[in-house]
Design brief:
By secondary structure, the chain is α/β, with parallel strands linked by helices. It has 2 domains: 31 residues; 255 residues, Alpha/Beta hydrolase fold, catalytic domain (Rossmann fold).
Amino acid sequence: MIEDFKEMKNRSRPFLPLLFLLFAVLTNACRQEPAALLDRPRLTPNVVLQDITFHSRSLGRDVPYRVVVPKEIEPGRKLAVVYLLHGGGGGFRHWSNYSDVAVFAEHGLILVMPEGNSSYYTNSAARPEDRYEDYIVNDLIGDVERRFPAAPERSKRAIVGISMGGFGAVKLALKYPELFAFAAGLSSAIDVPSRPFSWKRVGQYREHAAIFGAWGSQSRKNNDPFVLARSADPAKTPYLFLSCGEQEGLLAANRQFESLLRKHNYQFEFSAGPGGHDWNQWNRRLPALLQSLLERVR
């Protein structure tokens, strides 16, 4: 029996390099972002998509963003703009590839989808080159308004996000109320800066510490929506549209944030319904989101 095993082992040796090569090819393929391989925007016949790459001073490098505009725009007309922030693990193609948000452009809106990587749209405490908050509020908005017929007024500017992007949208709305008239967070990771250390999520905690700083630091407080909501002026803050799935782990934190907003008399709406942390649930929110947005941004 031992001799048979040795013979089988010897026969398999010539195939080992081939197996290792196949494994390497498959591993490399799996590391590539699916959106980069399968970019299939869900568009309507009445809109046009364009990808832009520009140099961000805040980031010190070239970055992409995607834009969807109405196919027909009256000469000289300035349109309202909606900035759509993707979630963690996503990219600037995700809103167009996994949602039906392109229909928003048929209502005379410019949709802008920036690349946020895993930044939480925050100036990193540990990586000075990753100033993603400055990139959004300074570089991106300026570039969009130079290239496209985008209205420069606050009353015609909105910001919307899912998960990590929902956190970013709410945080930026609270920090820069002069920039936006409307902000929406779907399944917002609203509690990330205040999450305590956990051995079960050591890697995640370290990554969040690199972005927000050490526990209890001023940089954490400066980017914590709960802290910001206690000090911001509700009368000047954009209208907030918030939602979360009832099967999500984020529901409890979002309900706590809802209570805080209600206590301080913010103008907002919050809804919770069936669904988990996925595009199926977020797509179901889009009709209500569009209606609320159009009532406040024109």
